[in-house]
Known about the structure:
- The structure is a single chain.
- This protein is mainly alpha-helical.
- It has one domain (7-131): DksA, coiled-coil domain (Four Helix Bundle (Hemerythrin (Met), subunit A)), CATH 1.20.120.910.
- Helices cover 60% and strands 0% of the residues.
- The chain contains 4 helices and no strands.
- It has helices spanning 7-35, 48-84, 102-107, 115-123.
- The longest helix is centred in the middle third of the chain and has 37 residues, at 48-84.
- The two termini are 26 Å apart.
Amino acid sequence: MQQHLDAKDLADYRLRLIERAREVQVNLQTLAEEADPTEHVTATSNHPAEGASDAERQFMVVASAAQESDLLQQIERALRKIDSGVPLAFGLCEYTRKPIDRQRLDLLPWTPFSVEALNEIESKNLDPDDLLIPA
């Protein structure tokens, strides 16, 4: 069982989350610039392979941006938990309402679920997003 998170622990996690949010915002800005078709206007031939390559790169950029955007939302949710305890106190699993293991929080401080909860969610073939407590 995890020890209680004190004010210093919460402040440390808050700082780590803010730093990670800044990194994600920079990544999103970079991806937005990569996705801008005006940034890649060149005097190239109209060879079909180049068009396919550009389309594939564009798809990868959009997919990466979606992942980064989801991560930023998770980070912001974790910060709300630290700051106001909404929708649940930081460090508590939103599925089991039990403390999340400290090692997991250290690796993924934005996680809303414990490993045990994720295993159960997976075994029941549930969608984790459907199990988040409404904020």
